[in-house]
Write a structure and sequence with these properties.
mainly alpha; Growth Hormone, Chain: A; 82% helix; 0% strand; globular; transmembrane; membrane; cell membrane; transmembrane helix; MFS_trans_sf
Length: 413
């Protein structure tokens, strides 16, 4: 039996299918971006920001922990079973919980399930695309993957904002999520094929590498390896500001008198540029290197957050949101490509899981920090403080992150 062939062209059909599946994964997240922060305030009467943002904390912790499990399971049992399990968990989120949730506790349970589902499905689509394309096109592969996911977040956030304005916050907006879950489960069960053989083929063609247990992968990705640990800290801070944006931006915009429709457009603008921009930035990082995109993207996000904190009105917030999306587009696929560059195929899925553990804990930390600061000093101050942390993260990456693109010399400690 011939070994699987690596490459984007050689695996175009399966790769394209996985891009479409990840768009559905992103849509499951997008159903919440506009509506749930407003449900907390308008339906369940939560007045404190810390309480209102608790759903993001639950989501972030559940997703972060599941990423690690997903990576280990994908190495042990294959990628496809993990993907299927994630879609099974996703089905009840819009159907049983968010659609008719009688109390805020139900919303928290729904977000725990959503986090578990996202950890299983999104992690697996990332791993499968890295498996298929081989070492030369990782940036492009991650750009396409993340572009599909976050473009779907943006489209769904805008769509559900419009549906909420026309039909109310519940139940109509969440019917979109139900359709996504059905399509994702069906496509994954009937059409997606296993890709672990591609990773094994890449490993067989590479120089021998030492076997690493889970503890060593955790330590390398978190602390010991300068590239992997730099990616982990930058990913955490990136999602810290995204957790803040998810929870506080809709409240900031509606409290300034913007309609639900215009709020939905603003909430969608940031992930739209983020998603579509990755079609360019991921591929460029294959040519120009990873480091400039990580450092520059983090600093651009910091400038954008300062603009949102100091802005006033639809136009100013729209411009700042577009900048925030551009900065995030520079960072997001590039950090995943860094992990793919450095981790050997035999432990790459686990390294992706650990990286995504730290990255997605940023959701929880952003919601916690943003909620506490907003309660104490107001939403603009919360956004400004997170912007300053984002700038510090970019400076730390400038000092510590080596270039990892395979065609450039590796700087390793």
């Amino acid at each position: 039996m011939n070994a699987p062939r690596l490459g984007l062209r050689e695996n175009a059909a399966q790769f394209t299918l996985l891009v479409a599946v990840n768009a559905l994964v992103g849509g499951m997240l997008g159903q919440e971006r506009t509506v749930v922060p407003l449900l907390a305030e308008q339906t369940f009467g939560l007045t404190g920001f810390s309480a209102a943002l608790s759903f993001i904390v639950v989501f972030g912790v559940a997703k972060a922990a599941t990423n690690v499990v997903a990576g280990a399971l994908a190495d042990r049992h294959g990628r496809r079973p993990v993907l299927l399990a994630g879609w099974v968990v996703a089905v009840p989120v819009p159907l049983l919980l968010l659609l008719w949730a009688p109390s805020w506790t139900w919303v928290l349970v729904a977000n725990a399930l959503l986090g578990i589902s996202q950890g299983l499905t999104w992690s697996t689509t990332v791993i499968m695309k890295i498996d298929l394309v081989g070492p030369s096109r990782r940036g492009l592969a991650m750009g396409l993957n993340e572009a599909a996911g976050y473009a779907a977040v943006a489209v769904t956030a805008s769509l559900t904002g419009w549906l909420a304005q026309e039909h109310g916050l519940r139940p109509v907006p969440f019917l979109v999520g139900l359709a996504y879950a059905a399509l994702g489960l069906g496509a994954s069960a009937l059409l997606v094929r296993e890709t672990r053989g591609h990773a094994r083929a890449e490993q067989a063609a590479a120089p021998p590498t030492a076997h690493l247990d889970g503890r060593e992968v955790l330590l390398r990705t978190t602390l010991r390896d300068p590239a992997l640990s730099s990616a982990s800290q930058a990913g955490l801070v990136n999602n810290l500001n995204d957790g803040l944006a998810w929870g506080l931006f809709p409240v900031l915009f509606t409290s300034a008198g913007l309609s639900l429709g215009r709020t939905g457009l603003l909430v969608a603008a940031y992930p739209a540029v983020w998603g579509l921009g990755q079609l360019v930035t991921g591929a460029l990082s294959d040519r120009r290197g990873r480091r400039p995109f990580v450092v520059g993207g983090m600093l651009l996000q910091a400038v954008a957050l300062a603009g949102i904190a100091m802005g006033d009105g639809f136009v100013a917030w729209l411009l700042a949101s577009l900048l925030l999306g551009a900065g995030t587009a520079m960072v997001y696929p590039t950090l995943l490509a860094v992990v793919g560059d450095v981790a050997a195929p035999s432990w790459r899925a686990r390294a992706v899981g650990v990286y995504r553990l730290w990255r997605d804990l940023g959701f929880a930390l952003g919601a916690l920090l943003g909620g506490l600061l907003a309660d104490l000093a107001g939403v603009p101050v919360a956004i400004g403080v997170v912007g300053a942390l984002t700038a510090l993260s970019g400076l730390l990456a400038a000092v510590r992150l080596p270039e990892t693109r395979p065609t450039l010399p590796l700087i390793r400690c």
